[in-house]
Specification:
It is a single chain. By secondary structure, the chain is of the alpha+beta class. The chain has helices at residues 6-21, 134-144, 168-181; strands at residues 51-61, 64-71, 74-81, 86-92, 102-109, 112-122, 125-131, 147-151, 159-163. It has one domain (51-181): Immunoglobulin-like (Sandwich), CATH 2.60.40.2540. 23% of the residues lie in helices and 38% in strands. Strands 1-2-3-4-7-6-5-8-9 form a 9-stranded mixed barrel. A hairpin with a 2-residue loop joins strand 5 (102-109) and strand 6.
Length: 182
């Protein structure tokens, strides 16, 4: 076994002693980080659009055929005249509209679905043209079968109309409408 000279042991012990007695370096405090800004509150959520339940009435005569799905404060009117596009007019008293704003209309029912874009015609009214051909008549037939009409952008509709299925009066009205278009 090798012997370590006493002088080496004493020197090492002294170094260790001095290391323990030496003042420790002063730790500098980290600079304070700026407080992140408080995010603004989320925008208020618009209440869910109520579903408006409608019932049908029909008028068929001379120059035009008119079907109306109505409820308190809401009126969906389909007007069919010879040599004119089928027109959909919608009045919603609870929904304010900007003049001439484009408003999507999406209908989904058991018989099918369709989409058109209407234009605001007043502070609570809009209108859309369906055309004057068999495709327009098929939109009307699907609508008469009942379903939901969403007014406004997908996911955030301004209103939802629950269109009830029509009865025999609806079939008689559709016959009138078809005679005006074809």
């Amino acid at each position: 076994m090798a012997r370590v000279p006493i002088a080496c042991v004493v020197a090492l012990s002294g170094l260790l002693f001095l290391q323990g007695c030496a003042p420790r370096p002063v730790e500098q405090a980290a600079p304070e980080l700026p407080t992140p800004p408080v995010p603004p509150p989320p925008p208020p959520r618009r209440p869910a659009s109520p579903t408006i339940h409608t019932t049908w009435t029909f008028r068929a005569g001379g120059d035009d055929c008119v079907a109306e799905a109505a409820a308190a404060g809401a009126l969906l009117q389909i007007a069919v005249q010879r040599d004119a596009p089928i027109r959909v007019n919608l009045t919603l008293q609870s929904v304010p509209l900007r003049s001439q704003a484009s408003v999507p209309l999406r209908f989904n029912g058991a018989a099918g679905s369709w989409r058109v874009v209407g234009r605001a015609t007043g502070p609570h009214a809009l209108a859309a043209s369906l055309g004057s051909d068999e495709a327009a008549l098929s939109h009307i037939l699907v609508l008469l079968s009942g379903g939901l009409l969403e007014v406004g952008e997908a996911g955030t509709p301004l209103a939802i109309l629950d269109i009830s299925p029509s009865d025999r009066d609806g079939q008689a009205w559709f016959d009138c409408a078809r005679s005006k278009v074809l």
